[in-house]
Structure formats: C-alpha cells, structure tokens
Specification:
5 strands; 6 helices; about 140 residues; single chain; Cytidine Deaminase, domain 2; 5-stranded mixed sheet; alpha/beta
Length: about 140
C-alpha cells in the first residue's frame, strides 16, 4: 500500500473520521456522514487531484464523486461491488476490508438512497446531478 494511502487509513482509524485525503503534505479530514464531505470538496473547488483517500463506507455514488475529485487511490472499510467497478473503470487504485453487494441505508431497512440514485448511471457527471437531485428530494426541496 502506498505511504499516502497508509497515512490516510491511519488517520481515518485513529481519529474516528468518516474520510481523510492526503498527498503527504496536505491533509483533509471529515467526520461528516455520507457523500456530504465529497460534495463539499467539489463545491468548494478544493484541489484534491492525485490525493489518496481513506473512507469508512464507499458506495457507487461516493465512488463517482472520488473520480470527479481526481483521487488516485482509495482505501474503504466497506465498499459495494458497484463502487469497486466504478473505480476499476476509471483507473482508481482501490483497497478495502469488506466487499458487500450494496450499501444499506442508516436504519438498515433498505438500500442507501445515494446508491439507488446512481444505480443505472455510468457517467460521473450524470451521477453528480442524480446525487444532488436525490439530496434535494430527501431534504424536502423538490
């Protein structure tokens, strides 16, 4: 495992983060849940190209956001099969602890709404729009 990815993974665990990005010099950390930190980095125009990331849970929606952020390698505690495929299709180096068929929602009553929102999408930009629409819908702002 590359040293920047190892550092991101160490910080993820030691500081109980939800995600962490680093290139050895810059470090971005978050405890926000779901795709929120990834969307924030995109919206704020933060340059994350070429960084390594460690994340607690990566579904297909998050995988597309990592592609858009230009992340070169990702470690996931838990990753969905569809997220793994997105990373393979876009040349992102991936390592993980647990592979699952799909990410479940927080109440474990069904699938993650973000995973469902991008289920039939294969383009990162189209996925971003679907994610934004789903978030609007979930917040009651249709």
């Amino acid at each position: 495992m590359n040293k920047n990815l190892e550092k991101a993974k160490e910080l993820l665990i030691a500081e109980e983060l939800t995600c962490c990005f680093t290139d050895g010099e810059r470090i971005f950390k978050s405890r926000d849940r779901g795709v929120k930190p990834l969307l924030s980095y995109l919206a704020d125009g933060i340059d994350t190209k070429g960084l390594c990331a460690a994340d607690k849970v990566v579904g297909k929606a998050a995988a597309f956001l990592y592609v858009l952020l230009g992340i070169k390698c990702v470690y996931a505690d838990v990753i969905s099969e569809k997220a793994l495929q997105v990373f393979k299709n876009h040349g992102v180096e991936i390592s993980f602890s647990t592979l699952v068929s799909a990410i479940r929602n927080r109440t474990n009553t069904g699938f993650c709404p973000m995973e469902t929102a991008v289920e039939n999408i294969n383009d990162p930009k189209a996925a971003l729009e679907a994610i934004k629409e789903k978030l609007k819908e979930l917040s009651g702002n249709k």
